[in-house]
Amino acid sequence: MNFRALLQVQATDHRIVQLEYRKQQLPERAAADVAKKALDFARAQVKKNEKRQGVITSEINRLELRGKELDTKKTKYETQLKSVIAMREVEALQHEIAGVNAEHSSLDDAELLLLDENETLDTALAASHDGMPHVESAANTAIAALGTAIAVLDADIAAAHAERSSLAALADADSMALYESVRARMSSAAVAEITKGSCGGCHTSMSPKEQAELKKVADTPDAVCPYCGCLLAV
Ligand SMILES: [Zn+2]
Q1: Ramachandran category for residue 197: left, alpha or beta (phi over 0 → left; psi -120 to 50 → alpha)
Q2: What is the pTM of this model?
């Protein structure tokens, strides 16, 4: 076994982890998310406003239709009014006409409100239409920039993996297997050197006796830090 060869493998593993982390944390990723959200929002606004305009159009059509019905009714009552003489009938017809007028007036009010709202929606939709190319191109640019940044990191990651493979090939299979199993359960270093009398993994200082004992078992599965359990290249 040769633990020293593992140090370089570990350095490459560490670099791969860092590169993967950088890939996830790319500022271009956040920028692309923001731009994509802005585009989704702008598109949703257009859809919402167009849908509302559809509702308004059919509501206005309904009011217009009802208005025509009322006009017909009123004409009918007014014609009848010309031919009745009895005061009671005159009053009844006048009452009907007043009712028709009141309903017509409230229809007109409702229609005016809807027309106002429609105009506001027209303005909003025109603004959305004008702004959409900008929002779309901003999203496309941000997504492209993210793609480029990812491609650069992917190339670095692929190179690091290739380097790791050649370094792993230089180490013996038993050392590699041991390294992988220690690495799987360690959050800190899986293999370290003793630097200035301390474990390079957990930085706990070791007595000269402990260090001497480790030297005796160098490059065996017993050459581990008694404090953190990492392999020690001594
Ligand atoms: Zn340690």
Answers
A1: left
A2: 0.73
